[in-house]
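Here is one chain, start to finish.
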Amino acid sequence: MLTSLSLIFLAGLFMAAICQKLKLPRIIGMLVTGILLGPYVLNLLDPSILGISSELRQMALIIILIKAGLSLDLSDLKKVGRPAVLLSFVPASFEILGYVLFAPVLLAVTRTEAAVMGAVLAAVSPAVVVPRMLRLMEEKYGTREGIPQMIMAGASCDDIFVIVLFSTFAGMAQGGKAEVAELLNIPISILLGVAVGAVFGYALSKLFETAYAHKHLIRNSLKVIVVLGAAFLLMAIETWLKSYVAVSGLLAVVSMACVLKRKSTDLVSKRLSDKFGKLWLAAEVILFVLVGAAVDIRYMLGAGAAAVGMILIALLFRAAGVMICLIKAPLKRKERLFCIIAYLPKATVQAAIGSVPLAMGLSCGKIVLSVAVLAIMITAPLGAFGIDISYQKLLEKDQSQG
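Its structure:
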């Protein structure tokens, strides 16, 4: 396992540095490293690492979502409230519609199988999007209009909506029927996630405040461990309650960090945010190398031109969905274009559930996995590169904030 971790960190950082030199996003180097080291190419990673790959990826995602919550200003989010809510489900719905309309023609699947494929492919990747939106907030690009905050909030909810739809469509493809209760889980999951997270955030702020009042100094490093422990507990609560009620663990984590920031002093939240920013440097490598390791290159090579065409058509539907979300939003045309680009990347959800239809024995399993793998390889670099090269041209820097 130690050898595998060494390869993940050293090779991942080396390839990321090469990509940076070539003016490409670092994520490309990490994804390629994972593919090369993974079981489908060189097979250099220990099976014990691959066995806990999904848990490690989830931990890395939790770290960046805590950092996001600690950086998110709720007053900024209120300014763009309606578009942020719409972005959490409209673009994904449009993309699924694109698959339902065109996948049966291009990929010879049934409408139900096309819906399953759309649900796998429709989620935007918060692991790609959120760190970039945080950088924009730090550099003050688009912050006056609340663009990074809006995209970050929408991307965090988008996954929940898509995963619930995936479970519904997969059940239908297995011969079941769509249950209204399944769809009701979406708003319930979001509301309960925000509420439970807010309770945790308030409790943590009171804990740190009480300790300070009684002159029990809790070092920032210890606060980080406590916050991480609380975040892991929130994810566990989602699993514990799954049989009874839907709770979004990831949204709960963001909500906890938001409330902690709001109830703590600026100095405390700033230091915590900085600490989690440093943790992300290591977590990012683990996340994207392991996402790459989950990619079966054989499926990608066998997908063919029709799959590439289907992905591009679906992205056009997604772009139309983003534009509809931004109707009446006080944004310029170039800012709207940036929002479309920022909503392109796919990685984590596709790597996590792309192989599930195949494991379920669905006849569309192989083609769904092929398209999912291809979508990661096309859209993750495309979206990351698009954001990196366009934000300074398309967004205005808020000079009033320094």
